[in-house]
Amino acid sequence: MRASSQFADATAGVVYIHSSPAALCPHVEWALSTALSSPAKLRWNTQPADGQLRASSDWIGPVGTAARIAQSLRTWPVLRFEVTEDPSEGVDGERYSFVPTLGLWHGSTGANGDVMLGEMRLRALLQAAAELDSHGNFDLPTELDRALGSPWDEDLEAFRQGTDSVGAEVTWLRRDVG
User: Fold this and answer.
1) Strand, helix or coil for residue 57
2) Rounded Cα–Cα distance for residues 85 and 12 (Å)
3) Can you list the residues of the chain whose pLDDT is less than 50?
4) Using an 8 Å Cβ cutoff, are 81 and 17 in contact?
């Protein structure tokens, strides 16, 4: 039995490439293969929102794999993507979202998928609001929305539509654990 102070070794998640130019698709697969130390062969479909290509894949790997995937994909600023990592024993889940006009967003997620803002982050936002609000330079509701990833969600929503389309293939990517 695992000691209560230990963390999980492995987790799972999903990578969604919401929009990619066709010329980048082989590079995206190479980046995923490198991040996962396992071949990634994605099935690409047309993205109705912009006519480019999209793909998604489940993955299994050590805790922290989502960060490696997101770091490797952000190399191409024209992609739109999301990477999730499921919560596991002693470790919160994660979600990374990338939109060309907004850059990379990262948030911790709970077991139900909600984005969680930690105490220190909330305190920093409240302090900044108290210090800067008198000058009109800080909008707390807007900053809370950004911390929750709302601008990224708003941009990606049109690209998320139809991701479970008929005939879509589910591909499992695996990174050896241990």
Assistant:
1) strand
2) 6
3) 1-5, 164-173, 177-178
4) yes
